Structures are given as C-alpha cells and as structure tokens.
Amino acid sequence: MTEQWIKGCAIQRIAFRDGLVLDMEDYNELVISAPLALTLPATETDPQEVVMINPIDVRKQERPLFDFAGQKCTHAEWDDNGSLHLAFADGHRIDVPTDQEHTSWELYGKYHGYAACLPHGQVRVVRHDLPNDQTVNS
Length: 138
Fold this sequence. Notes:
This protein is 0% helix and 42% strand. It has strands at 2-3, 11-16, 20-24, 28-32, 36-40, 49-53, 73-78, 84-88, 93-96, 105-109, 113-117, 123-127.
C-alpha cells in the first residue's frame, strides 16, 4: 500500500465531468471514473450508510451526497490491486475498486507527480518531487 501526497489536503471543489473530480489544496486533482462506494457518516438521525455510485452517470438525487467540500483528506492510499481508499475529516469515505477494462482513477499533482490505476489494477506512478531512486511503480 502506498500513502499519497493528498493526505492532509482539503477538498476545494467537487465536480462531475468525465467522472468525479476532487480539486484539492496544493494544486492536486483526483479524477475517479470507475463505480465507487461512498460512505456517508452517521448523523443524529441516520446511521452510517454506504452508497454505490457510478461517477460517469451520477443521478440528480445522488449529487447532494457529495457535500463535503472543505474537508481534509485524512487517509489516502491504494492497495496492491490498485483499489483506492480515501477518508475525510467529517467521516465521508470513498473506496474505488479496480476496473478490469478502464482506468479507475487518476491523481494529478502539480508539485508531486501523477498516479493512475490502469485496467487490471496496474498502477503507474511518475513522481517529480523525489529523487529518481525513490520513485515507486506498482
């Protein structure tokens, strides 16, 4: 598993164009194009809930579920098969499994590099903020 540079960054804007787009502090952008599990935190009246969402075809009634702009990313990693796991300060979580036929997610960082989960869970990483001997590819 690889911890990512977006940990500690706040979400500045949430949009839907070619998938779910999370614009984050420090000039980072995460684009999720595979179906995802969105965990909604418990409230005073409702328990925690997990909702499956296709970010390429978000229904009108699903859009309000993405109301966590301003929250800091407290956990960001992918596992050996390329599945992405994110957690936010208010309790929202996003889990993106690998897509066997399409790119599942892409992370762009102006100051850090690029990472993407290609089909079949192959993760490609290009870091320009680390010496060449520390760049990691999965």
